[in-house]
Every structure is written in structure tokens, then in C-alpha cells.
Amino acid sequence: MPSPAQNPQLKPAAELSIAALAGIPLVKEGDDIAGLILNGLAASGLLLRRGDVLVIAQKIVSKAEGRVVRLADVDPARDAIELAGRDGDPRRLELILSESTRVVRSRPPLVIAETAHGFVCASAGVDASNAPEPDSVVLLPEDPDASAARIRHEIRLRTGQRVGVIVTDTFGRAWRVGITNVAIGSAGIEVLRDYSGQLDPAGYELHSTVVAIADEIAAAAELVMGKTDRIPVAIVRGLAVEGHGSAKDLVISPEHDLFR
Amino acid sequence: MPSPAQNPQLKPAAELSIAALAGIPLVKEGDDIAGLILNGLAASGLLLRRGDVLVIAQKIVSKAEGRVVRLADVDPARDAIELAGRDGDPRRLELILSESTRVVRSRPPLVIAETAHGFVCASAGVDASNAPEPDSVVLLPEDPDASAARIRHEIRLRTGQRVGVIVTDTFGRAWRVGITNVAIGSAGIEVLRDYSGQLDPAGYELHSTVVAIADEIAAAAELVMGKTDRIPVAIVRGLAVEGHGSAKDLVISPEHDLFR
Predict the structure, then answer these.
(1) Is A252–B220 a contact, with Cβ atoms under 8 angstroms apart?
(2) What span, in angstroms and rounded, lies between the C-alpha atoms of B201 and A228?
(3) Would an 8 Å CB–CB cutoff place B42 in contact with chain A?
(4) Which of A13, A44, A200 sits opposite B229 (nearest CB)?
(5) How close A78 comes to chain B (CA, Å)?
(6) Which domains does chain B have, with CATH numbers?
(7) Which of A152, B75, B132, B180 has the most beta carbons within 10 angstroms of its beta carbon?
(8) Is the pLDDT of residue B39 over 60?
(9) pLDDT in tens, chain A (260 residues)
(10) Which among B71, B177, B250 is the top mutation candidate for probing chain A, defined by the most A β-carbons within 10 Å of its own β-carbon?
(11) Closest chain A residue to B44 measured between Cα atoms?
């Protein structure tokens, strides 16, 4: 990716490049995500560098891991039938409930739920878009941090490069319209950056200023990825975020969540 | 900024560059933000292009607009004294209440409030960090969309270029740890991108998939801006987001907010 040094016109204090990775085929169960990414990179003539961060849409990770369910195979129980209301598919609601530890809000057939990972999101992450066949849905990876770590490890083995990996999904938020891409799994990067104790130019100490940089990286990558699964991977270059954070660090405990 | 064409190694499907703008001095009331940005760009040898998006931290906009209050000038009422608890400054709480239309949550001295703009955030955006003097605080701009539009207009007048402008602040979120940068004002850009009706590769129609791209652009820019006010501006190049959205479009109505 171009660096500021290659362009004498530009002397920014810092610069990021975010590239969409073309050439990833539709993913199916058992596919080797690291291999598909390295093939895509090779086709683009792009070499990974230490410190690059690969941002990978959850959907392809889930598909490769076999987290796809055919609705025909689901037998909904009474609570799923109730939550489905008139317009929902009770089989889909059954899957949402089985992926949830708690229903946070519901307005049939819409459900906001907390997943086993601790994420609060629409439909507990159960999603029909970009599913491999019409009557199937895709679930979140069972352990997205582990998924990210596996992909990172494979890339290290095959290229020698230490990169960061973030697995993402698009979540809604309270108070604001629209979804944004967030980190649900990560490996090899700092997830939160704590500015506490740093001084502003006036000497005022910054208190409890913890920035969710993994979510900001996920959001940045979405701008080149889009929503139709044709570009499920982006490469972010120019960050200095090597570290050991887990996306679980982004899950807030109820007693600390004043926004709840 | 470098473009993919300048680097034959890279053929991504899409590429963004995000550059921190160095050389913006500490801002004071009456300063001309557009002029300071153009000076910073000139010092970096950088020319704006149509379609570039300038991302500007709220703090410098507020300071230029005189949205700074000395705590010594504030006379707290009883409700502010109560909300301050033992550890808070009642004068600061008085300002938070005067900036709020509604207190959403409080645990003295912490307050989550809804502002007159409709934003839900900590302390109604009242912030002591990066304030111009030790005993002062900075309020959000009164109309951040108008602030963005003014800066955009000035840049068009002086350079002939149509750019997008986003004014940002870092907000906390429900359910997730840490703050992320979001759009509180915008001009000349698409704020929400609606993928409804588009088909995924399997022909499945995407429903109610509205991405808050202005917030994603804000988040992306924060990665090069940091929190100490030394880099309050970033330039994002490579987006195709020209449009007419308002950051008010990001404020959800209570009846639509299932996450509330």
C-alpha cells in the first residue's frame, strides 16, 4: 500500500490506508480463510507487512466454520412461535433464542438479544443475508476471538508476518440510527486504548478516556467492504496497534454500563 | 494523497487514505477553522480534491464558536448540587443540566443525558479536557450541522473544491466498553447508506440494512487523530459519499429505538 514516503506531496502526522481485498470467492464449510485471503492478496500483487490489520466479515468465518443452519431442520418451541408474531418465521426465532442468553428487547418479530459471547445485537447475530442457500441462516462464530487467532496463526506460518486480525459484524446501537461495523473477535491487536493519565496541551489530565479502537478499525474497514459479501476482507495499514486484546474486552458488565 | 494508480503493486477493489493534518494551532474564540485547515494543508503541501471528507473534532469548532464557559461564572442550583454528589463539581453539573433536555441515567457525579440536538452522551457533551484554561469547560456547538456547513462553504469559496465535512465527538455506547468517534454535524455527505432492496450474491434481498457511514467515517478518522487535541483534523480520501445528509438523521426517535 502506498506510504507517505512514496508521495513527497504529503507529510501528514500519520496516515492510514484501507484497501478492499478483491478476489475472495463465495465461502463454504471447511474453506481455509487464511488461504483464501493469501490467494486474494497474491492476485492483487500485495504483500502483507508486519502491523497490517486484516478485517474479516463474520459471515465468511461462520460459513467456513459450518455455522449455517437450514430452517427446515429447526423445530420451533412455543416461546419462539410467540416471539415470531404474525410476520416472523418461528424457526428463525427458535435459532435466535438458542443463540441467546437473554432477550433484551422484543417487538415481534424483532428481537434484541444478548449472545453467549456477551454481545447485545439484533437477532443474536442470526442472519439470512448472504447465507449460502435461500432457506438457511448464518450464526455468529462460536468463539470469534479463537477464529481470529487461528487465521492470524495460519498467516504467520505461511508468510512469516505478524498481522492483526479482527472479525467483524454490523450491529445496531441504542440512541442512534443505523448499524456500524464492530469487532466481535480479534487477535494480535490492542482492542482498547486508554488515554488516562495523558495530558492535554493545557496540562489537564485525561480521565477515563478509553477508546474502542478495534471497533473504530472495524468501522473504517466497512467503508470499503459494503454489505453484499463480495468484499468480505479489508487490509488496514499504518496503525500501530500490535497487542494482545480480546474482543471480549469490549463487552461491558451490566454494573459498569451507565448507558443501559 | 497516494492513489492506487501510483503504486503498481496494489490493485484493490477500493482504497481509502486517511491522513492526520498536522499544524493546526490551539484554537481560540473567533478563529477561522476553514482558514486554519487550509493553512495546515498548505504547510503539508496537500491539495484538497472534490470528494475528500474533512473530519474535524468538535472541540476546536466549539472553541472557535465561543462555546467555552468558566466554572467561576456558574451558579449551581439545587438539582445540580444533588447530582454532583460528593465527588462532582456542582457548577459542572449545572452546565450539564442546562445543556440537557433529559437525564437518561445518573450515578453521581456521572450523568448520561440527551442534548438539545437529540444526542445521548456522557455529560451532555460538556467536557473539561482540552479546554482553553484550567477552570473552564467546552460545550458542544449549538448547531454542529450548521458549523460543518459553514466550514464547507468557506472551503468551497477559497479553493473551489466541494468537500464533505464531518464534526465529531467521542461518545460512549450501551452494551460495549469504550468510546468511539461519531458524527455530530455534517455537510455535503451521505450520512446513512441504505442497502435495502439490494441483492446479495444468492439473490437474497437485504432488508433494513442502513449503515451509519458518517459515524464509520468519524471512527476511521479518530484512528489518526488521537485524544489530545494536537491533531484535531483528518482528511479522508477515496470515499464516494457526496450527498446531503444531516447528522440529525443519526438521532433515533424513541419509538424506533428497540435498543433503548
Answers:
(1) no
(2) 7
(3) no
(4) A200
(5) 23
(6) 14-67+141-252 (3.30.1330.100), 68-137 (3.90.1660.10)
(7) B180
(8) yes
(9) 444 333 333 345 578 999 999 889 999 999 999 999 999 999 988 899 999 999 999 999 999 999 999 999 999 999 999 999 888 899 999 999 999 999 999 988 889 999 999 999 999 999 988 777 889 999 999 999 999 999 999 999 999 999 999 999 999 999 999 999 999 999 999 999 988 767 665 565 656 689 999 999 999 999 999 766 589 999 999 998 999 999 999 999 888 888 87
(10) B177
(11) A11
For residue A182, what are the β-bridge partners?
A169
Give the pLDDT of residue B44: 86
Nearest CA in chain A to B206: A129
Distance CA A169, CA A189 (A): 17
How many Å separate Cα B216 from the centre of its chain? 11
Beta strands in A134-214 (DSSP E): 136-138, 164-171, 180-187, 193-194, 210-211
Alpha carbon distance A104, A111 (integer Å): 8
ipTM computed for the complex: 0.92
User: Using CA atoms, how far apart are residues A160 and A52, in angstroms rounded to an integer?
Assistant: 13
Mean pLDDT over B7-14 rounds to 47
Distances (CA, A) of B251 to A20, B58, B257: 29, 17, 10
CA–CA gap between residue B212 and residue A176 (Å, rounded): 9
Residue B12: asked if its preceding bond is cis (omega within 30°), the reply is no
CA distance B227 to chain A (A): 7
Classify residue A187 by burial, with Cβ atoms within 10 Å: 0-12, 13-18, 19+. buried
Cross-strand bridge partners of residue A214: none
Q: Are A85 and A197 in contact (CB under 8 A)?
A: no
* C-beta of residue B30 within 8 angstroms of C-beta of residue B22: no
B176 in Cβ contact with A192 (< 8 Å) = no
**Pick from B117, B104, B133: which is nearest to B260 by CA?**
B104
CB atoms B230 and A201 under 8 Å: yes
CB within 8 Å: B202 and A173: no
Cell of B31: 478563529
| Radius of gyration from C-alpha coordinates of chain A | 20
- At B9 the three-state DSSP class reads coil
Nearest residue to B232 via CA among B51, B20, B78, B53: B20
Most confident of A209-213, B106-110, B217-221: B217-221
pLDDT band at B13 (very low <50, low <70, confident <90, very high): low
